Automatic annotation (TrEMBL):
Highest taxon above the source species: Bacteria
Organism listed in the record: Nocardioides szechwanensis
Name this polypeptide is given: DUF1214 domain-containing protein
Amino acid sequence: MTVTGSLGLTKPLQDAIAEAEELIANAPFIRTEQDRLEGYDYLAGRIRMAMQMAFDYDLDRPLFINPTHQFSRQGLDNPDAVYFNAYLREGVEYVVRGCRGTSADLSFQVMAGTYSADSAATSLMAFDDRELDIAPDGTFEFTYVAEPGAKTMIVREVFNDWDTELRGTLTIERPDTMGRPAKPLTADLLRKKYEVAARSLVGSIQTWFAFPQFFQYKEPVNTLTAPQSTPGGLASQRSSIGHYELAEDEAMIVSVPVCTDCSYQAIQIGSDWYASTDYETHQTSLTKAQAVTDPDGVMRFVISEGNPGIANWLETTGHRTGSMMLRWQRLERDLTQDADGPTIQVVKLADVPDLLPHFTPITTEEYAERIAARQRSVARRMIS
């Protein structure tokens, strides 16, 4: 028997895409055609994420999904991290298994609810792999019974040295549903999935429009906060946040002491879409392993559109304004502003060589080699 005719299941998603396009096209921070085009590229990533969230997740058959990567950027995503999410059901037992790679940090977090345009999600539990019993061959296993309010388990595998550190493996399962087949497809089930995708799409755009207003944009422009606990973050993580506004002939010098009491330390800049900018073919982020540390133990970064001719250049890639964030993870002690925090100078780009106490120029060819290394590392490390 031949069955024909539309079920009309995609209508909610079609409407949501149209609504999302209006949000993107009329974003208040759009100033240039590049901003608008980046918005449409950002929209493609949001559509991709919404479909993945709706169709790849199954509460009866949990698995870790990678929703944030170079083709789907959100929430000032960390270029050094591979993110995994799994949805949870309260009261259910889960078994997480894996093999520890050689990344700088592997952390686990359980969240109540999700980030929204009104508030950040609440962290119910957070720890890194130092609390796991890891066997000599790198394998580990732990059991977690989802507590009241638990909605999502987030895993972050963070890389300090892109060239040498390798990813591990990770799975999650429900012992009570293992061995059972998946539910058969029904029109009602698919309708719900398209409705979930529609809500997720519009909600995620509204959320990340609002989120930086809670934190980054509460601070004066061209400043960075003292190192502090990351909102909704891990106990062993600190961050310094801010936003910049630079003219084409200006540069920002960010100086921060290298921290030897953490496995991971890094800086990144992002766009007004509150997302990472191209970290694959441009240098828009640097870890302490990638950066040059001066003889006095300080890393000095230059944020600018024009090339200052140094290794620690962070490219604004045409963005006169944007977000900034420094991160320290897997800390062994707390941080203070006087000993560990960043300082900022906004200067003329032409004056940078005279203002860096250990100015060491690199050639165009040497910088191109740095970019080539980034491309190879992203290809090896990232998944989508």
